[in-house]
Amino acid sequence: xxxxxxxxxxGQIGQTLAMLAAMKELGDVVLLDVAARENSVKGKALDLMAxxxxxxxxxxLRGTSDxxxxxxxxxxxxxxxxxxxxxxxxxxxxDINSGVIAEVAGNVKRxxxxxxxxxxxxxxxxxxxxxxxVSGLPGRRVTGMAGTLDVARWRAFIAxxxxxSVEDVAGTILGGHxxxxxxxxxxxxxxxxxxxxxxxxxxxxxxxxRTRGAGSEIMKLYGKGSAFFSPAWSAIAMAESFIRDKRxxxxxxxxxxxxxxxxxxxxxxxxxxxxKGVEKIYEISLTAEERAELSRIADAVAxxxxxxxx
Length: 310
Known about the structure:
The protein has 310 residues and is α/β, with parallel strands linked by helices. The chain has helices at residues 12-23, 38-55, 90-111, 124-135, 146-162, 195-198, 201-212, 214-222, 229-243, 288-307, and strands at 4-8, 28-32, 61-64, 75-78, 116-119, 142-144, 169-170, 173-175, 181-183, 189-190, 193-194, 248-257, 263-274, 277-281. Strands 3-2-1-4-5-6 form a six-stranded parallel sheet, sandwiched between helices. The model has no long low-confidence stretch (mean pLDDT 94).
């Protein structure tokens, strides 16, 4: 029996997720959007089904505005809510999207309580916590997409800056999303060569700042709306590791239970994703400066979560 993937939110990220999930044959896809006209998501599903013969994939796709259609989903990816537009801060979105995420979490709790859930909705850190507390799902089955996307941007910008293949760049990022992320140049390599040995401090500083501000850079270029290609692919990488038990180690927002001295908070950490969800968080030996910065970020995340009443 094929797996079932529920995509909650039928906007640009949702439709891109549907296309990628179908093309990778991860399972049958339900595209749910309770806010949009039902015909819109039904049309997107039908359009993707008509692409299947040329795309050489087998997957059932359907669109709906009925939350009951997600029943029994193996994976739920949440993009619902208003996207962040140019000039908006993550805090601006909080009041708008908190209610949306609470409703989504309630529906998942009712209809897909065994699903592995990936939250993309912004502001991401707060929305992951909101989803987790409302859904009541185990922490290993709730995660946020951010770290996977942040590392992809980090690798892409290093490759562009140095004129090398992105395939040969490896590294990770800890912490939050956007300004509150902690890239680790010390542990980043290019073809096995440490980044700090082949890039100048000025280059590294430039790449760090560009990675932290990548979301805003894209929004300014779009004029309206935010990134959708790269977030979708990042979430699909996580979903595929779960569905196919690939046991990839990906940076993601995972619930820490003492790792890095952090308790009860979702933070960007390297985590093993397998058929049971987030199966292990890996702790990296950090320098005193890195530990202090991660502690500062954790305090900021805790403050944001507390202010939201989560």
